[in-house]
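Problem 12. The chain below contains 269 residues. Write out its predicted structure in token notation.
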Amino acid sequence: EPTVRTELMEQVPPIAIFLQESRPKFPTAFFEYLMPVVVRYLTDVNNQVRKASQEALLILLEQDLVAQSDIENKVCPILLDLSAPDSDDEYKVEAVNIICKMASMLSRATVEHMLLPRFCELCSDGKLFQVRKICAANFGDICNAVGQEATERLLIPKFFELCSDSVWGMRKACAECFMAVSYTTSPEVRRSKLSPLFISLISDTCRWVRQAAFQSLGPFISTFANPSSAGLYIREDGTLSIRPSAQDVNSNSCQPSNTITLSSSANAT
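Solution.
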């Protein structure tokens, strides 16, 4: 019964944590029994079971409970199969969503060598606009996961494609994550490539795209500032923050220091 499999998946994370804490008694139980079930249920015929399996997988990755060998030999291959061009539409949408979510939890080398090529392909998926929409909405997170070199070499050309997509929702998603993408690039790329691209979004024919671009204008401009002198930095949640200067900290030493936060919309969906 699908409900039984769904309930089982919901119990996997706490069982895995217990096994990890009791590893001397159960050294291989998780890898031999639980992990194969999680991977198998990613392709289950029932969408609720698949969803429960995806949620369990993300929790396991977040808790650093999945071995690197299992990530590379079991998890990534099945996601690549599910997101292949000839894959079922529903499976493909789910696979690209999970790839984007797990990118920030994996090592840079794993993301760049195993998942980035497929992500670039999915950005140009001409069959499903939902796939391109997920890629656009999570573009900043992928850039952050792979770093500047891979972003400028492989991702920026795809970002240009998405920013000129015929579906306005795609262009709007790009405008919302523009600051996160810009922050990952060099000042030269920011100035010569991203600035003209941003102007095209702020001049878009769709008012919703223009509105999203104007909301991202301040955060995008902030990426041109020198972090050491401006005190700007990006938090782990994707928001732009300003560190108070040493003078401000000293003058308010008796008061709790507050960080001014500007929403970057980097994680908007």
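Discussion. The longest strand covers residues 232-234. Students who got a different answer should revisit the alignment rule from Section 12.3.
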